[in-house]
Amino acid sequence: MSDAPPDLGSLQLLTLVAELGSLGRAAERMGISQPAASKRLTLLERRLGLTLVSRDTRGSALTTEGKAVCQWAGRVLAEVDSMMVGVAALRGDHALDLHLAASMTLAEHFVPRWIGTLQRRSPDVCVSLKVTNSEQVAALAASGRIGLGFLEAPSVPSGLGSRQVGADRLAVVVAPQHAWARRQEPVDLAELARTRLIVREVGSGTRETIERVLAGAGVEPVRPLMVLDANAAIRRAVAEGAGPAVLSAISVRDDLAEGRIVEVPVTGADLRRRLRAVWSEDRPLTGAVEELLRIAARA
Questions:
Q1: How confident is residue 86, by pLDDT bands cut at 50, 70 and 90?
Q2: CA-CA distance, 26 to 214, in Å (whole number)?
Q3: Is the separation of the CB atoms in 175 and 238 below 8 Å?
């Protein structure tokens, strides 16, 4: 263990492992080899004196200590991003014109198309996008670190402007061999609440939505079987029979079509939700930010 702080690359690697559920995919995103990523992660664990990631044949998952370090790492990286934006402004560098953040579902299925439309209309605009959970998107928007955020949380914190840019619904999904896949009647909320579920981390819009639905029905809160930080990791765990999960319907569309997982009907709840753009009320919407919001709202 060393008292020297870890390098930013190692912290970024840890956050990507949490996001993608795989050391190999995290290495690919960073443009390094998997052995190099594994060595970097081992050095980080040795430097901190903690086991941060557990690895098995299904992928990589953060330990309890790893999740805590990952949250702190996210704050450090956000501060560095904010610093670099300020430095660019001081030197008159306008290459990074538009800073965005989006929750995972929106970042995977909606935001890239909107950005593509914006860049076809304004090719000189350069966009940076941070993918995180809805709670962090709201925090980044409130602090002014981003010009625009996209989230799927049931409510918007005070101090933020918002506009609906789409709609989605949640789906209860299981592996084809799960008992629920063969039942004739829908699952009700009481049974869903009694069942241990694979869920996203606290702060995700999906987790907050299902918890509000259960609370509104006066049944027990979510009982996690497993908490994972990435939709892809949850889909894989469900397909391999680990247990039921509640996920965005659009995020499981391909898995449902190819038969890897099965959707289970649920009765007694409206699982639809709004997708929103958010921004700090202290920052007027101008230029590329205003144009992107217009594109998203029309889409």
A1: low
A2: 34
A3: yes
* 196, pLDDT greater than 90: yes
Tokens of 57: 């044949």
* Other beta carbons within 10 Å of 240: 13
Instruction: Write out the two tokens for 192.
Output: 């869903």
Lowest mean pLDDT among 77-86, 163-172, 228-237, 246-255: 77-86
Confidence grade of residue 95 (pLDDT, cut at 50, 70, 90):
very low
Contact indicator for 278, 149 with CB cutoff of 8 Å: yes
Within a 10 A sphere around the Cβ of 13, how many other Cβ atoms?
Answer: 26
pTM given for the model:
0.64
| DSSP-assigned letters across all residues of the chain | --SSPPPHHHHHHHHHHHHHS-HHHHHHHHT--HHHHHHHHHHHHHHHTS--EEEETTEEEE-HHHHHHHHHHHHHHHHHHHHHHHHHHHTT--S--EEEEEEHHHHHHTHHHHHHHHHHH-TT--EEEEEE-HHHHHHHHHTTSSSEEEE--SS--TTEEEEEEEEEEEEEEE-TTSGGGG-SSPEEHHHHHHSEEEEEPTT-HHHHHHHHHHHHTT-PPPEEEEEES-HHHHHHHHHTTS--EEEETGGGHHHHHTTSSEEE-EES---EEEEEEEEETTS---HHHHHHHHHHHH-
The answer to whether the CB of 135 falls within 8 A of the CB of 153 is yes
- Per the prediction, the chain carries an average pLDDT of 87
Report residue 103's pLDDT band, with 50, 70 and 90 as the boundaries: very high
- Would you say residue 93 has pLDDT above 90? no
Residues 261-268 have a mean pLDDT of 94
166 within 8 A of 95, measured Cβ to Cβ: no
Looking at residue 200, its amino acid is R
